[in-house]
Amino acid sequence: MITIEIPSMADRAALERIAQQLHQCHVQWRPDIFEPARQLLSEEELGQLIRQERIFAAKEDGAVVGYAIVSTKELKSTGCKFSRTLNIDALAVEQSHRGRGVGTALLEFLKTHATENGDTDIRLTVNEENETAIRLYEKAGFRVKNIAYSLHIAP
Fold first, then answer.
1. Residues whose CB falls within 8 Å of the CB of residue 56, separated by 6 or more in sequence, listed in order
2. Calpha distance 30→141 (Å, rounded)
3. What is residue 41's DSSP assignment?
4. What is the C-alpha to C-alpha distance for residues 56 and 66, in angstroms, rounded to an integer?
5. DSSP label at residue 31
6. Quick one: DSSP state of residue 40?
7. Which of 2, 28, 39, 120 is the most buried (most CB within 10 A)?
8. What's the count of helices (H) and strands (E) in the chain, helices before strands?
9. DSSP notation for 114-128
10. Are 125 and 88 in contact (CB under 8 A)?
């Protein structure tokens, strides 16, 4: 059974391992932006995410098998309806656990979390090459609302 909880500092090595797996995909898909990194989730950064309750770990039998990092943004502007958006800044699943419901469990948890916190929307971005994640998000009810274009101009 998959449970979702705020991780502890003791989970840092597992979270880093999963972050590295996702980062390797980003390096492959977008070498114009990403490069290999020895550390992606510092002790300081993880501590801050935990204190702010912005990171959630998916666990199976006590072991971290995935995580999501989130942030919230409110829009209060003339001419726009009020919105409070939960942004999924990162969602990653251990390679050996992909296709086993971990991503779905994280998304269902985040839907409930967003509702309980008065959010009006959930947003995320995904690399166009990440077809598995796109299928997951569409199955969970996400739809394309914006298209972002990118033009790499530096050597």
1. 4, 5, 6, 7, 67, 68, 70, 106, 109, 110, 113
2. 26
3. S
4. 9
5. T
6. S
7. 2
8. 4, 5
9. HHHTT-SEEEE---T
10. no
Helices (H), 30-149: 43-51, 102-116, 131-139
pLDDT reported for residue 86: 95
Are 84 and 72 in contact by the 8 Å Cβ rule? The answer is yes
How far is it, in rounded angstroms, from Cα 78 to Cα 92? 36
Contact 72, 23 (CB under 8 A): no
Number of residues that this document lists for the chain:
155
Using alpha carbons only, what angle is made at residue 89 by residues 7 and 4, rounded to the nearest 5 degrees? 30
Q: Which residue do the tokens 């500092």 mark?
A: 9
d(CA 55, CA 71): 9
Query: pLDDT per residue over 34-90, tens digit each?
Result: 999 999 999 999 999 999 999 999 999 999 999 999 999 988 777 877 788 999 999
3-state secondary structure 39-105: CCCCHHHHHHHHHCCCEEEEEECCEEEEEEEEEEEEECCCCCCCEEEEEEEEEEECHHHCCCCHHHH
Q: What is the pLDDT of residues 2-25, one digit of tens each?
A: 999 999 999 999 999 999 999 999
Tokens 């939960």 belong to 86
